[in-house]
Write a structure and sequence with these properties.
Aminopeptidase, eight-stranded mixed β-sheet, 10 helices, about 30% helix, globular, signal, metalloexopeptidase activity, metal ion binding
Length: about 425
């Protein structure tokens, strides 16, 4: 068998030529291709790592490896899961995935994804400011935020039994949120839309609202703020999960930002999008699906900030956590600048590890993303103890200030 094929590598494309009597199957796992050659008398396996394509040529016909990750494993109901930056990931069944969830282990479900090989210098950061330029505009918006309105939202959103992505209450809560967004943009002076983004992995949809930019040249450049809408109880998917901090608080930061912009009549030059993701708690699946679509369609995302768990307050810690791993350095530096300029709180650098929240999806697809969050994580996260009473609304309001500063400064190129 070893004499029946030849292998050549040209740059990062691998070409394999086999004789006509040999059959071939290809499995792809992240950046690893496993090619199995079979004849009537033998079988041979060969791994090709970090190749963009594997071309298998026989009888003058080329077969390009474009199959999804591990068909056999996927048919068995397994998912390809990554828990670290290194390695191709591991196929896991539902029980194994719940084992990760029960231990609060961060992970990404990469079954349906082939992330590009992105280096920090490859990311387009030209639109990210290095100074604050629109203080007058932003400061005029900060006084419009409403803690009472945010309390009303979280009280209702956390009253659902849970917001698990496969549960009926996860569907109901998403539909309620969608109605809140619809109501918020109904009287906007500019052009505003909101859409539900359906997913193949479950019945809970993500939500994308948009304030279209007024500048014909710049409106194709997109500024995004996002938060996940789902919640989970690590003891079981049917159990109660109010998710007031995780992540009703992040969801309301995005919604309150939208409401303030609409009510003020603010019309950006660049387009601003507001995202609420499904299924974050089971591997960042909603955000990864949207980031993948934007990558495929070459959407020009000039900056993204993810809001997750901004609501748990520890006495004496009047600080905003600026997370520095799995993010873009320029966006992160800009977030510090925004906190200094627009917030009462100070900032402190933090880390959260691989795949801790939805910014990781955008980073993985080469978009410039940042992540501010609470400095001490809720000790009863992912349980019934993450309830309305545990949310610090003065702190949540600080994140709304940060969010307003981000979208205004990012959506207004140039100087006044």
């Amino acid at each position: 068998m070893h004499k029946s094929y030849q292998q050549f590598q040209v740059l990062d494309i691998c070409i394999v030529i086999i004789s006509p009597d040999i059959s071939c199957t290809i499995k792809q796992s992240s950046k690893l291709y496993l090619v199995t050659f079979s004849s009537s008398i033998d079988k041979f396996h060969c791994n090709f790592i970090n190749m963009k394509f594997v071309l298998v040529v026989a009888l003058g016909v080329a077969l390009v490896a474009s199959c999804p990750h591990g068909d056999e494993e996927a048919k068995a109901g397994k998912r390809l899961i990554k828990t670290t930056f290194e390695g191709p990931g591991q196929w896991m069944d539902e029980d194994e995935i719940w084992g990760l969830i029960s231990k609060h282990q961060n992970f990404m479900d990469i079954t349906d994804h082939n992330f590009p090989d992105i280096k920090e210098g490859d990311v387009n950061v030209q639109a990210i400011p290095t100074t604050l330029r629109f203080q007058s505009t932003v400061n005029g918006l900060l006084g419009r935020t409403s803690i009472t309105r945010m309390q009303d939202f979280i009280r209702t959103f956390s009253s659902y039994h849970n917001r698990y992505y496969q549960a009926q209450t996860g569907i109901d809560s998403q539909r309620w949120l969608f109605a809140q967004v619809q109501e918020s943009i109904a009287n906007y002076a500019g052009s505003a839309t909101v859409n539900e983004v359906t997913h193949t992995f479950g019945p809970q949809s993500s939500i994308v609202a948009r304030l279209t930019g007024s500048d014909p040249t710049l409106r194709s450049e997109i500024v995004i703020i996002g938060a996940h809408q789902d919640s989970i109880n690590i003891a079981g998917s049917s159990l109660g999960a109010p998710g007031a901090d995780d992540n009703a608080s992040g969801s309301v930061v995005v919604l309150e930002t939208l409401r303030v912009l609409v009510e003020s009549g603010y019309i950006p030059k660049r387009t601003i999008e507001f995202h609420w993701y499904a299924a974050e708690e089971v591997g960042l699946r909603g955000s990864a699906a949207i980031a993948s679509s934007y990558s495929t369609n070459r959407v020009n995302v000039v900056g993204m900030v993810n809001f997750d768990v901004p609501g748990y307050y520890v006495s004496g810690r009047d600080e905003i956590g600026i997370y520095t791993d799995n993010v873009n350095a320029q966006v992160t530096a800009f977030l510090r600048l925004l906190v200094d300029g627009y917030c009462t709180y100070t900032w402190v650098n933090k880390t959260c590890g691989y795949g801790c929240s939805d910014h990781a999806s955008w980073t993985s697809y080469g978009f410039p993303a940042g992540f501010p969050a609470e400095v001490v994580f809720h000790p009863r996260m992912h349980s019934v103890g993450d309830n309305f009473a545990s949310v610090g609304f003065t702190q949540v309001n600080e994140y709304v200030k940060l969010s307003l500063g981000f979208v205004v400064e990012m959506s207004e190129p140039g100087t006044l």
